[in-house]
Amino acid sequence: MLIELDRTSTVPLYRQIAEQLRARISSGELVPGTRLPPERRLAAVLGVNRTTVVNAYRELAADGLIVGHVGRGTIVADPSRLHEPGTPASGIPWPQLFTPATDVMNDPLLQDTMLVSSRPDVITFATGMPAPELYPIATMRQLLDEALHQAGQSLLQYCPAEGYPPLREALASWIAPSGMRFGPDDVLVVAGSQQGLYLLARALLEPGDIVAVESPTYLGALQVFRAVGARLLPIPVDQHGMRVGLLEDVVARRRPKLIYTLPTFQNPTGTTMSRDRRERLLALAARYQVPVIEDDPYGALRYAGESIPPLAALDQHGVVLYLSTVSKILFPGFRIGWIAGPRPVIERLAILKQIVDLDTNPLAQWAVWAFITRGLLDAHLERLRRHYPERLERMLAALERYATGVLEWTRPAGGFYVWCRLTDGLRARDLLPEAARRGVAFAPGESFHPDDAGTGTLRLNFTFPPVTAIEPGIARLAEAVQALRSIRLNGEGSRRARVVAPIV
Amino acid sequence: MLIELDRTSTVPLYRQIAEQLRARISSGELVPGTRLPPERRLAAVLGVNRTTVVNAYRELAADGLIVGHVGRGTIVADPSRLHEPGTPASGIPWPQLFTPATDVMNDPLLQDTMLVSSRPDVITFATGMPAPELYPIATMRQLLDEALHQAGQSLLQYCPAEGYPPLREALASWIAPSGMRFGPDDVLVVAGSQQGLYLLARALLEPGDIVAVESPTYLGALQVFRAVGARLLPIPVDQHGMRVGLLEDVVARRRPKLIYTLPTFQNPTGTTMSRDRRERLLALAARYQVPVIEDDPYGALRYAGESIPPLAALDQHGVVLYLSTVSKILFPGFRIGWIAGPRPVIERLAILKQIVDLDTNPLAQWAVWAFITRGLLDAHLERLRRHYPERLERMLAALERYATGVLEWTRPAGGFYVWCRLTDGLRARDLLPEAARRGVAFAPGESFHPDDAGTGTLRLNFTFPPVTAIEPGIARLAEAVQALRSIRLNGEGSRRARVVAPIV
């Protein structure tokens, strides 16, 4: 849970902050002894004056909810006195009842990032979202209306766990031109690719099992693998994708149960695995009989260069489980993704899907089916492939203009992201408040790393921000980097670096 | 996977049967040694002539896929010769890689039931679906159009894992008149109540933990609890709901981690827990600090008698986790349910929800929000409460007329189901093919039992079938019971009873 400020409200900002912190203390989310973020930092993240935070903290202190300790900062006080009058005391000690499987910490750095990113005055490069102004909203209005008019009763009903049969067929045909040969029964429709990852992890991993993942990689996958109790085997990524040679070196010793890769326009680095490495990865997987999840949300968004076949098209041994989604090529709101793979896996996943949520919204499935089979998705993709390169070029030009010498960056051939590195050992987490103060947000790279690496890296998304905001956003970011450099030169950096894991 | 026949196809029915069995043998779903159902039984279930099944089996036998054994029936042959030419051999021994968590057998009895139920010539009392002809389709067309017109960009976007904030608020207000006091932050929107159950089970149960469940109960809950490795403690249900006294007797000894109950218009029995038992159950849960999941999909559908407050309204100790859905009171296709409960649980579940599928379709959430806040849901419920009692009365009158003496049944005060018992020790699973032959389907009660009980029971749904189909459907069912009785009197019953767990 984040602190969200409603700037249109008549409730003063300091009261909003105090009330939200109070709720989180009452609920037990902030346990006694938790250190609240320093006033300056919270003010920067929220985009408010420091006095506002000071007043909020004073109010909470007056109520006995927090206490200031010299040298330890502001700490959440003993909660036994916190039950509001009228609230029945809970008979259940909830935190003691939760299973370890759900004991996944929210990443405070990401919470900061999302919070900054949601401020209306901030230009955000932090998201993984497509351009909302390109959503085919008028077409979708027509399609949904047509669907309910023609088949409302059946499309508002339950539907097979495996997916709406015509959509399974449409997806199998739609991916066939990339060389992937799947029939309708080899395709499972899921409620977004996150659910696909979850089902795959549940079906194939037990606590203690090892998963080879790229480092860095999609953080939703890291969360899924951690939630099922798997151990992560990080394999670094370079400009040709996962360093398969390093995996070859350790596979016999570590025996991973699963290999997870985003080979094409990778999230977060934007790099694409070379054909040679793809073939070596498949040979390795076949030799050791390790399934490979190929996560491919961005593959259709190539802006330059020759396309390389997906792993699923090169696979001669049935080792690849292909995962994709319409969230990046259409929009995320329908929650439609799919898995294509060997039929025994699809059938097993369908049983699990039924247990997890019965089925996927059939109306949304119908709309995606119609969008694909009427050729609208291919036309939409052409439109995206015309618009996104302009945004990418603007971002690269702005980086060139403003950030040369203080940032290094990649030039992706497709997808959503430019990957950057701070020079001189600066940390992206220290850059975040400086950037927030100047009205720009980015995704800190360390959150995408399964290990402690990547502290100097950041991910910049170029598809979501308005095209005219890209240059000023990069200018603000470069300013923030310069500010961080001068803070460090003045010796403030080392003090700030000791502030570990602020909660808000 | 079921055998589904397309009667409009030019492919002969026997070929359709053979091809589908062939696919299931190739995929490994039907492993070598699996006994196929006897020809007569499969013919009855599919609604085809016995010759059709004989021809299908002959074709598979000619291909070496199945073999006939005297005394053992028809058996799936060795699979090593089954790879079709052109299909790459899989490098992965999939069945050996699946985790035990997913090792949930499809219930063959239910598969039979669903199969019969889906035949166009069959009157089905087997489903748990609301009347499709009462879906407010025109209103939903308008709402979805309005939503996309006004806020398309944000409603096709990602949304908070906890749910669309206005819907959380609307749900909290909408359930308040029943005496449940929850704020918006105490409500989690989920993709249908099945997902709610799954998240609760994952958050609160580890393998080996004990869950007290009603016997019989909702079978999707049994599947969830089994999938997370829990052990079930069945507590019988009588006309006043769960026999709480029996739970009181064993709770100290068995120490359940969770109590799961459907106290109002229970699925499958239709019974409602008395107020006295509700209070005893809550006292017991508070004393032993055991959370109670109150599953309440049908509570708003009372047709007679005084309403009894939900457990969540009577709860003084914060032990109840209230679960409900719009699937039964509106329609299932939007996949919208919710959990209301103590905030630490809601926050923990939100983290898990994010891992499982990120968020719930925001457009569907908006539509449900608008439907509730504009008073349309209350109006719709009044309409359902006018229509459904007529269907219930028709069913009860038809039972009176046709089934007196061969069936016993309940008279529910609300909900979707009439619960029946066969007299003279007949088994519902033996009734199914007789009913299928006569064009009527029901849900066998034993599937809802966590133990081996209930073989003589059946669940009849009165909301889904067209109102004019209810009387003829019950007449067919009574005929089937009479036929089963005469088969048994002729000594065939004991032979049939030896056919255990047919796969199809």
Automatic annotation (TrEMBL), chains A, B:
Show where the HTH gntR-type domain sits. Answer: 11-79
Q: Which Pfam families match?
A: Aminotran_1_2, GntR
Cofactors named for this entry = pyridoxal 5'-phosphate
List the CDD domains: AAT_like, WHTH_GntR
SMART domains in alphabetical order: HTH_GNTR (SM00345)
Alphabetically sorted, this entry's keywords are: Aminotransferase, DNA-binding, Pyridoxal phosphate, Transcription, Transcription regulation, Transferase
Task: Determine the domain of life of the protein's source.
Answer: Bacteria
Listed GO MF terms: DNA binding; DNA-binding transcription factor activity; pyridoxal phosphate binding; transaminase activity
**What PROSITE patterns would the database entry show?**
HTH_GNTR (PS50949)
User: Which family, according to UniProt?
Assistant: Belongs to the class-I pyridoxal-phosphate-dependent aminotransferase family. In the C-terminal section; belongs to the class-I pyridoxal-phosphate-dependent aminotransferase family.
Assembly mode: Homodimer.
What is the protein's given name? PLP-dependent aminotransferase family protein
Task: Identify the species of origin.
Answer: Thermalbibacter longus
